[in-house]
Amino acid sequence: MSIKNAAEKLICQQAMTKEDFIELLGYFGNSDIMALLKEEALKLRRKYYGNKVFTRGLIEFTNYCKNNCYYCGIRAGNQNARRYRLAPEEILECCQEGHHLGFRTFVLQGGEDPFYTDEKIAAIIREIKYHYPDCAVTLSIGEKPRESYRLFREAGADRYLLRHETADEAHYRQLHPDSMSLSTRRQCLWDLKDLGYQVGAGMMVGSPGQSDQTLAEDLLLLQELEPQMVGIGPFIPHHDTRFAKEPAGSVELTLYLLSVVRILLPAVLLPSTTALGTLDPLGREKGLAAGANVVMPNLSPLRNRKQYELYDNKICTGEEAAECRGCLEQRVRNAGFELVSERGDAPFLPKKLNPMYKENR
Ligand code: 5AD
Ligand code: FES
Known about the structure:
Elements: H1 6-11, H2 18-26, H3 31-49, E1 52-55, E2 57-62, H4 88-101, E3 105-110, H5 118-131, E4 136-140, H6 146-155, E5 159-161, H7 169-175, H8 182-194, E6 198-205, H9 212-225, E7 229-234, H10 251-264, H11 274-279, H12 283-290, E8 294-295, H13 302-305, H14 321-334, E9 338-340, H15 355-360
Parallel strand pairs: 1-8, 1-9, 2-3, 3-4, 4-5, 5-6, 6-7
Helix pairs in contact: 2-9, 3-10, 5-6, 10-12
This protein binds 5'-deoxyadenosine (5AD) and FE2/S2 (inorganic) cluster.
């Protein structure tokens, strides 16, 4: 039996160990292996999605948050954050405009805001599903008890984004106060999966304290969870946090990880993130060229855009929804892809359960 290096193992879809992932991360900077992985990522992306790029209308409906994640600009302890909430009618207006613009997924994202009780959230979901039955609803509202997730699911929510942020216990402690825990985070992700959501996990790249060891843990979590979506963006410091003076994450490493994740989970829905576009004017185009297949332009009302400031210099805070959509459509085209007006569900079962998978390779 030939001994394969970690990049070959990944490409051959063999189960990866932590050591394999650490070896793989060590190839960052090796232009031959990086080119090989990028090419494989693009091949898989094309195989499952052709030329298509899916788009999601992001509605940032509250920047109140009870949590205090150390990296985040809207954490509870930031007295300088100007807080806002959208009323249900305002959220519906965003959806109306979004539907008109061609969005068929709405992402309701917010801080963990106790004002929005489970019942209020469920009522908003029902309302959106009633008016736009052809659209998917994605929630991104943090950690909740399983019963809340169940209620939202029964109200019609289709997907849930909950980045794990880091899968390494010690690193998690560096980024979060004691009131939060990685085990709760993991439990939430498995609950969501169990309840039939399409689930999104993910991490920041270059967050303070991150190493190849912690990134290997992230990749192991993704391999085990097999989420349908993975959100990966560079860490960007926010001036009102303890990490204000820390360097931002690397765009290049983010792109490398996008390719790695595309190969690890071939049919994954992988956004080219706003954070990537914030650090590099062509970041989102580069993300698509590395294996991403989703973009998430902003549908939030212009008057509140700047207030949803997770990190400094966030782009798209001065553009109307239609401008953002148009801009991204053009960017996607420039990158050689086509922005489509579809729900854009994950097309296949997770790879290990999918009998099609082996035959196709
Ligand atoms: N830099 C980059 N991404 C951040 N997020 C929060 N704060 C920052 C930051 N300073 C990300 C987290 C969260 C998502 C909504 O935004 O990963 O899950
Ligand atoms: Fe928002 Fe370009 S995507 S302005």
